[in-house]
Every structure is written in structure tokens, then in C-alpha cells.
Amino acid sequence: MTVTDELIGDYLGRLEAAARGLPPDRRAELVAEIREHIDTVLAQSPDRTEATVRTILDRLGTPEEIVQEAGVGLPETSPVRAATAAQASPRTRAGAYEIATVILLLIGGIVLPLLGWLIGAVLLWASARWTLRDKLIGTLVFPGGLVIPAYYLFFWGGMTTCDATGHCESSGTSVGTASTVLLVTLVGSLASAAYLLHRARRAGA
Predict the structure, then answer these.
(1) pLDDT in tens, the chain (205 residues)
(2) Is the separation of the CB atoms in 107 and 185 below 8 Å?
(3) How far apart are CA 83 and CA 87, in angstroms?
(4) Measured distance CA(177)–CA(129) in Å, rounded
């Protein structure tokens, strides 16, 4: 059995276990539907690598989320509603570790120049909750977090020198350039932080 087969088998096994509160026929139908969906997407993919399979499963969502959607319409007292609610509850928020990591990545470089952001990056890569893709996004978009926007916000004007006639010239970055850099890095840093928190909630504890 290949690694990809093991990944799919493990995912379907978790799905069947999570769906134990559903009627047997509905549980079997749900597992069959998901298996068919995975096979169809794989057949349309150029390769069947581990990364491809992980991407497909990631887009499907967790087995608990699938079962929770399948249980919509069942009575509140139904075992599957109670079970999926209990399983989904830890996923509604990120833990203190993840929140601290994102904060350090975002503003750590301002509070502790360079060191604060580096600590956040180390915590990010040490966590098992985020995938490799998540860690690359958190590290590279944007390195230093809000340090660059803060720098341009306060120092974009640079130094101004004046000659004897009173004519002054600024050696710093122009307003237009500073504003563009500020906007891009600000949006990118905040989007990266929001993405990491979203992924942490989905990954669960």
C-alpha cells in the first residue's frame, strides 16, 4: 500500500468513525460519496503524489466537519449531532500558543526589534498544528510583520537638508513610495496573521 493509499484510507476511516451516530445506510452512503469524490479528483489530477492527496483532503475539510454537515436536519438529541458538536468545539478557537505565535509574528519585531519576530518564527515552525505551506506563508508574508509599515510610517520623510538660500531637499523615501510600501506590507501582514489563525482553528487541538 502506498503512502497516498494510506492517507486516503486513514481519512475514510476517521470519517466512518465520526459518522457512527448516523443511520448505517446514511453512513455507508456518505463514506462512498467522499471516496468517489476523492477518486474523481485524483483521476483529473496530473499526478497522484502525497502532496496532491493532502491538498484534496484539506479542501474537503475534516471528517468531523463533513459529518456535522451531513447531520443537518437530524434532531438535536441525535447522537451524531451531539458527537460532532463535541468534536468540533475544540476547533472553534486557536490556543494560547498559536495566538501568541501570531502576535509575535505580527508585532514582535516592534516590541523587541528583530528578536520578537524571530521568536514568533521559531514558535511557528515548532508547532505541529500548521502545515509546511502555512509556515512558509507565515514566515515569508511578510518577514518582520508590521515592522516595515511602522518604519515607513514614522521615518518615510528621511533627513531634510537646507542650503544657505533656504531651499530644502529630502533624502528620504517619497510619500507615494512610502504609502505603497505601507499599504502592501500592512495588508499582507494582517492577511497572513488572519490566515494562520484560521488554519489553527481548523487544525484543532
Answers:
(1) 788 889 999 999 999 998 888 888 888 999 999 999 999 998 888 888 888 999 899 888 899 888 888 764 444 444 444 444 444 444 445 578 889 999 998 888 888 887 888 999 999 998 877 888 888 888 887 788 887 777 766 665 555 556 666 666 555 556 566 677 777 878 888 888 898 988 887 765 4
(2) no
(3) 6
(4) 37
Task: Report the distance separating Cα 83 and Cα 80, nearest Å.
Answer: 5
SS3 content of the chain, % helix, strand, coil (to 5): 70, 5, 25
Residues 53, 167 contacting (CB under 8 angstroms): no
Place of cell 446514511: 26
User: Residue 31 in contact with residue 5, Cβ under 8 Å?
Assistant: no
CA distance 5 to 53: 9
What are the cell numbers at 107?
Answer: 508585532
Cell of 160: 531634510
What the block records as the C-alpha cell of 43 is 483521476
Report phi then psi at 143, rounded to 5.
-55, 130
Kindly report whether the global pTM for this prediction surpasses the value 0.85.
Answer: no
* C-alpha–C-alpha distance, residues 205 and 128, integer Å: 10
The angle subtended at Cα 12 by Cα 88 and Cα 32, nearest 5°, is 110
